[in-house]
Amino acid sequence: MLFSPTQLNTCGSSFVHKKYSCSGHSHTSSSLSTYLVLASSASRLYASFWQQSNHYSVSCSRHLSSSKNTLLDLALNRASETEAPSVSSYNRKPVTPDVKVDTRAFLKCRPEYAFLSLDLTQRPQPVEWVELLPRLQKVSVLRARMKPPDVLQFLLELSKLHPDKMPLLQSDQRFIMLLRYSVEHLRLFSELQLLEVLQSFVWLEIPSSHTMLEVYEAELSRRANQLTLHQLLLAADLWRCIGRQVPQFLQCLFESVHLYLGQVGVPELVQLLYIIGEGRHCPKDLICPIKQLLMRHLAQMHPEEVGTVCLGLFKAQTSLPAGAVTRIVDKALSVVTEMGDFAMVNVLKYLRFSYLFHRSWLEAMGREVPQRAHRMGVQGLMHVTLTCSALHYCNDSILSSIAERVPSLVPHCRSKDSSKLLWAFSTLGFLPAQSQSFYPSLTDALRQRKAEFQRYPEHLLTGLLGLAFVSQFPEDLVILALSPEFVHLALRNSKLELKKDLFTLDAAVTLELPQWKGPRLSGELREEVAEMLWKFAQSDVCLKPEVLEAESALQDLLGGDKFVCKRMIMPHTRSIDLEIHLDPEGQPIPVNVLCPKQNPTMVPSSQRWEKINSGVTITDNLVAQLIKGKNSTELPPTTIAASSDSVRQGIKDSVKIAVQISNRNHYCIQSQQLLGLHAMKRRHLKIAGYRVVELSHWEWSSMLRKSRAEKLAYLHCKIYDSL
User: Fold this and answer.
1) Cα(4)–Cα(621) distance, rounded to whole angstroms?
2) How many CB atoms lie within 10 A of CB 519?
3) Is residue 681 in some structural domain?
4) pLDDT the model gives residue 722
5) Close Cβ partners of 314 (under 8 Å, ≥ 6 residues apart)
6) pTM
7) For residues 640 and 715, what is the distance between their CA atoms, to the nearest angstrom?
8) Chain centroid to CA 354: how far?
9) How many beta carbons lie within 10 A of that of residue 426, not counting itself?
10) Where would I find the RAP domain in this sequence (predicted)?
């Protein structure tokens, strides 16, 4: 028995032996019907099971890619003889194991977890192959005469075999026969025996895809209402240790939890959230009870338990109210110095998912991460920077310590790690000059993982866009990304919309590499994406009050709507500008010919700003007081044109001006540092010959509450001071 007598006695009702009779009188008609369906299903599975014969091997099946990916590999390999670089022209290389992390460290926090989970560090004392041969021989002798206790005992003894010899056992026909009998006796096992069989499967390394396990899941699901809460959680954990997704059983578990809410203490709650996270799903009707239980038990949780709670909520994409998330992070902050790196990163993951800016926690990360970075693995560091990026939080101490650590971890980098690190750092404005090795090392890491782009084309685009933000364009990777083969692969990916990313990369290359002779996107695709982006802008940012008021005021300032064009000058940057042109004399030039047609019904009358006649009279004194904050001598009233004579005299050629109405999401939080995409846009506008005038959100939002004359004075100075 794998459960000690002490455990069984201590657990009490958690492990209750229940005898099952094979007599039809002991089952309801619905139960019998379920069993007949199960038996029919099992018979079909036996056939599939027996067909595996000697080819049944854990060691090989775990490393096989799916048939779909294999076919994709073959298809791409057939095209690899072309001269141009292709997705398939690089061999796969295994990723070196990253820094080892104990993802189940929370189980060591309390002795109660022994009844809710399997301690994977307590493997049975290994037994050599020769010692178990007599047991296998006995299996072949007993055959159909085996009873449920015999089957269980054989499985428990064989599960002690040394791990190195497991493939030998799994290919043995006598072992296959034993598994067959375990399924035939499935109905006769008690609940405790079922759990012990499932536990033996963990040590026997039964592959998670094995068809036999489908029958076991069905039987455990059928008996869910006969299992205690502890047994349900233990069974769910055993399935997790096997590595099999069991949505049917988990649904039964979740439905049963409502019956046991009064029995849920800290260990039960944490284990439940661990299971929810590993299953990637939390039923909506459980969210409220879980929140209430969390708030009740939060103060008693250990640091690693808080990390597990955050990871479970993150993996299941479960939103809690901001107040509840804040309390969880407050608790994490109070024990942050005692937290392991894995738990700390899990808190950051849930912050990222919740988009909660918790200043005190992030400031603590500014102290903790530099102290821990030297021992952390690449995946943990990637999640730290992703959280900073998602929250627009730029902390030089965090970024510098990670940038120093990452180059040594390149052998451990998956394409996902490399691409997201590049994206996060460049989004936060970390420039190549700040670390000589950071960007080159991750670019090389992308090259080493090129084969992974067959399955995850988005990783290449994410990495290259990150590099483009800081004006880095590795030619070989860009050629690959814009090649017809890769574009076809990326567009075929139905799960993600990659057209916009391809469009942004293509345009960035065109602007920043004028001598580019490599592949480009087709004109049709570029037009399609530009139109899609403009339609979205028309229904969203074009209608924002701050944009409508700036457009209206500029039209008044310059003398009419023909002098202001609201459009996407740089559509690949996915934002709009107000474009105006001035001649060498400083006079506005009509630009309405540039403006795309816009349906006037797109602008609700309730959001149109009242317009006044153009030619508003503004005094130099008013301009000085409003913009410079200084008192000046009263001068005779003049028109805007007259007050701008001195500026106009300084203009040598006509000028194109892009007026940008920024918002706080364009900047790192509580700073004036532009995020990566918006910094790239500024650069591209200048390359295209535009002068950029920004109506910053911290200035323009306050101007919206002022009079039209004050707004015009502000805009006048913004436009003409830029010259």
Assistant:
1) 90
2) 19
3) yes
4) 79
5) 277, 346, 349, 350, 352, 353
6) 0.80
7) 11
8) 12
9) 27
10) 657-717
- Look at residue 289 and tell me whether its pLDDT is greater than 50: yes
Task: Give the Å distances, CA to CA, from 575 to 347, 537, 578, 604, 661.
Answer: 33, 7, 11, 21, 10
Q: Which helix (H) or strand (E) holds 176?
A: helix 173-184
Give the ranges where 355-407 is alpha helix by DSSP (H): 359-372, 378-390, 396-405
| Residue 435 is assigned to a structural domain of this protein | no
Place of tokens 């040394």: 162
- Residue 709, Cβ neighbours under 10 Å: how many? 15
**Pair 336, 364: CB distance under 8 Å:** yes
pLDDT at 619: 53
Domain for residue 665, yes or no? yes
The kind and range of the H/E element at 40 are helix 29-51
The neighbouring-strand residues paired with 93 are none
Q: Please report, as a single letter, which amino acid is at residue 246.
A: V
Tokens 């439940």 identify what position?
272
Residue 624, phi then psi, degrees to nearest 5: -65, -40
- Say how many domains are in the chain: 1
10 Cβ neighbours under 8 A, 6+ residues apart: 115
Beta strands in 23-114 (DSSP E): none
- Residue 276 phi, psi (nearest 5): -60, -45
Distance CA 550, CA 68 (A): 53
What are the tens digits of pLDDT across the range 99-142? 888 999 999 999 999 999 999 988 888 999 998 888 888 888 88
pLDDT digits (tens, 9 = 90+) for 359-379: 999 999 999 999 999 999 999
Question: Which residues is 661 bridged to in the sheet?
Answer: 695
- Strands 655-661, 690-695: pairing is parallel
State residue 189 phi and psi, 5-degree precision: -70, 140
- Helices 266-279 & 303-315, crossing angle to 10 degrees? 30
CA nearest to 502, candidates 462, 543, 536: 462
Answer whether residue 296 is part of any domain: no
Residue 651, sorted as left (phi over 0), alpha (psi -120 to 50) or beta, turns out to be beta
Which amino acid, 704?
Answer: L
Residue 326 burial class via C-beta count within 10 angstroms: exposed 0-12, middle 13-18, buried 19 and up:
middle
Neighbour count for residue 133 (Cβ, 10 Å): 12
Length of the chain: 723
Torsion of CA 636, 642, 645, 648, to 10 degrees: 150
> Letter for the amino acid at 100?
K
Measuring CA to CA, which residue among 433, 382, 370 is closest to residue 406? 382
Decide: helix, strand or coil at residue 642: helix
**DSSP structural state of residue 597:** P
Nearest to 344 by CA among 359, 321, 326, 364: 364
| Residue 694, strand partner residues | 660
d(CA 153, CA 354) in angstroms, rounded, equals 48
720 vs 579: CA distance, rounded Å: 14
Across residues 222-246, what is the average pLDDT?
95
Whether residue 542 contacts residue 566, with contact meaning beta carbons closer than 8 Å, is answered with: yes
Structural domain span for residue 573 = 541-595+647-721
pLDDT digits (tens, 9 = 90+) for 481-533: 999 999 999 998 766 789 999 999 999 999 999 999 999 999 999 999 999 99
Q: 717: pLDDT confidence band, cut at 50, 70 and 90?
A: very high
pLDDT band at 283 (very low <50, low <70, confident <90, very high): very high
